[in-house]
Amino acid sequence: MGVVAAYTVPSETDLAGLAEAYGLAAVRASPVARGTVNSSFRLDGASGPLFLRIYEEQAFEGARREVALLHHLASRGARTPRPEVARDGRTVVEVAGKPAVVFPFVNGDMRCQRAVTASAARAVGLEVARLSLAARGALAHPSRFDEDELRRRVAIIARSPLADLASPLAEALERVARSRRRDLPTGMIHGDVFRDNVLWEGEAPSAVLDFESAGVGAFAYDLAVVILAWTFTDRFETALVRSVVEGYQSVRPLEASEAAALHDELRFGAVRFTITRVTDCTLRGDTRKDHRRFQARLAALEAMGARGLLDAAGLVRAT
Question: Which homologous superfamily is 113-318 in?
Fold first, then answer.
């Protein structure tokens, strides 16, 4: 969840309705700089701070699926906040005609790339593997960002002022899609563990946030997203890549097929986030999440090759 404006601002009537629904005293809302496509607020009142998320893209069904997963994970000890339950039993309410969820407010700091140490990278890798294990038995649903959804977004780009990006993105998407293995171990994954989706207290993660992208996917892809998000400066930092993988494998050792497929999953992730950065940010005039950063990652991966990636990750012997 990155920096973004509040697309939907709750009115006084909305806030009064929230207070009534959750049995709270009067609350006031302050925008929180989290989210690329959703609106986020801190709710303050006599009962202490809460966090309000208003879903801008997902319908009520999608929000309910995410909340069900969060309850499942929290009940199994995962470091993710358990959504609050309204007095009538609802976990998803309506604010300004849109689905909304109230969470406990979790304290913690986010890390910039300069603050990502080998120890922090290892901790994140470990946490993602723990989430995969905690998600076992959760009600499964497809990822919102499968290859067909990315093709749909490329078509949107083709009709936009950035139409010149569409053809190269379409070619890259099809190229990496053809090379992906379809027999990898799968399950419910987060799929979006970026630096702004992890809160820290000291040297330990205090919470993993934002499961809107969660769905059934390859575990190797979940690991690939962490490598993309946490280990790249102007290049992939070998020490950080290796630390992420070591942390992950300390909880869930990779199968040989997953190690062999990791380079392709990284390439797919780089294309995926290039496309979604264009549609969610660049086309909206938000340059704070630059799609070109993921084009740079893809170029670095292509130059590195599969063998180079395995070496950087300390996985040569795994294949």
Answer: Aminoglycoside phosphotransferase (APH), C-terminal lobe (3.90.1200.10)
